[in-house]
Amino acid sequence: MLPFLSGWLNKVTLEPSSVNDSSKALVSSLFMMAWFVEARDPYTGGHLWRVSRYARLLGEEAGLPSADVARASLGGFLHDLGKIGIPDAVLRKASALSDDEFAIVRTHPEMGWRMLSGHPLADLVKEAVYSHHERPDGKGYPRGLQYGDIHMDARIVGICDAFDAMTSSRPYRSGMSRGQALAIIQSQCGRQFDPTLCRYFLELGRRGGLDHVMGHSDDGIPLRECPMCGPTLVIKRDQQPGEHIYCRNCGGEFSLEEEDSQLIARPTGRIGSAADLQPDIDHELIRKVVAETVNNMLLEQMLSAQGGAYQ
After folding, report:
1. What is the pLDDT of residues 188-235, one digit of tens each?
2. Lower CB density within 10 Å: C or N end of the chain?
């Protein structure tokens, strides 16, 4: 269950539609914060959406209540919130990080936790944000928690974040195949990853249950390739043929053309202006994910209030 949301809903005296709108506004404010983190790194296009989706799929596979699934999915979208404080020279480095640089990156869970301080929904996501790099063997960070002290949300997001990191391309390496990434997760079962959740994730992956999320930035929308930089091009659902998109790494301009009922990005040979390359929030995607999250939360609240009458 969601203790804070439950208490908040019990205190307000609003019509259900008003409660729904208020909830969506609160969740949306968190998503906007997270989106600007992703916009700074051209090689993480769709990462937040993918981790959120993987978390939802894993939670469902594990048989968790719908509210717990929604909370883990929300945590998946927000887990990297603290990276907004990581310098661009480190966040966007085109080669492997040094030990000192990795030490800087390791500050992002605590920074994210501090950023959430005072937000009305902080209790829903703080564990996923603060503890998603903790490990059952105690070798994680920032607190070196042992297995029993790591919240379920953080265990879920930790697996999903690692899988997406392994299967996504970076400037210095191509993304792994699904099989390669699953083999590494299996090898770290019980050490880096929760053993029970690990088994659920492996089963989900082996039967192809993750394939529609891998390499995508939204449902049915795969990342497109920049010839210079790799899969860095994000197409929004509401974009149309003739519009332009830009590689956030090299600045290259691409024209969208329809081919076989899909939008294809063709290089124009031009470089985008400073205005073209400004972070562009995908409001439609955020609205969709927020609606899914809040609706699941409110449904669970309604089921609880009715004693399971709707099950």
Report:
1. 999 999 999 999 999 999 999 999 999 999 999 999 999 999 998 999
2. C
